[in-house]
Amino acid sequence: MKPVLRLTLTAAAALIAGHAIAEVTFFEHENFQGRSFTSDRQVGNLERFGFNDRASSVIVGGNRDSRWEVCDDVRFGGRCMILRPGQYSSLGAMGLNDRVSSTKPVDRDGRDINDRMAPAPLPSQVIFYEDEGFQGRTFSVDKQVEDFSRTGFNDRASSVVVLGQRWEVCVNSRFNGQCMVLNPGRYPSLAAMGMNDRISSVRALDWNVRVEERRFAPAPVAVYDNRRREQEQIFNANVTSARAVVGPPEQRCWMEREEVAATRGEANVGGAVLGALVGGVLGHQVGGGVGKDIATVGGLAAGAAIGANVGRDKNGTPATTRDVQKCENRPSNAAPAFWDVSYNFRGVEHRLQMTAPPGATIPVNAQGEPRS
Fold this sequence. Notes:
The strands form 6 sheets. The chain has a 5-stranded antiparallel β-sheet. Helix 2 packs antiparallel against helix 3 (290-308). The longest helix has 19 residues, at 290-308. By secondary structure, it is mainly beta. Helices cover 10% and strands 35% of the residues. It has helices at residues 11-14, 269-284, 290-308, and strands at 6-8, 24-29, 33-39, 57-60, 68-73, 77-83, 86-88, 102-105, 125-131, 135-141, 159-163, 167-170, 179-182, 185-187, 201-204, 235-245, 250-262, 319-330, 338-345, 348-354, 361-364.
């Protein structure tokens, strides 16, 4: 019998069949994103199916006794790891990101299986923040909560981070009322989906649960799961630079008067009034204390004199004017959107983005990946 193979464009489509049988599903990107490939039989060479050295995350299905071996060479050669049932959002932690070339199911009691066992997959988790932009108090859960009123966090969440698998959040207790499904990622504001300060219950959803498209929240910002893995050794890497990155420039607009035609007549009274006002504003920017008052008076006088002659041609004929909108871009005054951080570990330069400024060092694993 040939392996059960499926190539799809979305994680949900790849997993509709469920995981009651022993099978393995590889995904092209971390957090179970991108194309996927599923098999319930051994595959000695993933090149045959266009998935060699492409896997970045994996889900192992079956009962608790199921085990799958993944190797970085064809025909189960090279470095191999044994995966237990569960969801592995990143293969980078075990040094197999974009390196898997063959895979097969293995006997739980096989030879030297414990020596090659990968760290247990991390439990799925959702972290709620009291304020937007992942600020304020937090409330973390790794299992369903039917009623937030018992936690002191009812109707308080304004932003959220989802790790591992998708979660359903509802505005009423016991998963009633309006509900939305959150995919793994960062949601800096719940207001866009009408859930700000309204969440009262939450529960995890397996990948094989069918969900109508309209129930999904808008696509989140990608998230990196930096939680420490089982028995993982941690090191300190020196931060070499940290740069705050603000949002896009803000546009500032105002109205200006523009000449449109010239006619003969008396002194430009309107120009004198406008000039006095503008002169007063400009004068107020000069000096301090008594000096500011003098500058203001001087500005009014000079502005009136200039304004009275605005629009006159060389023959003394005033011109009519109209209001024209002018705009310019100025640097954003908002808080930094993130920090662009560089750090060096064992002679290799790494970069990452953080929601808060780093210290002098960053905890990393043996591969230089950030850890909390």
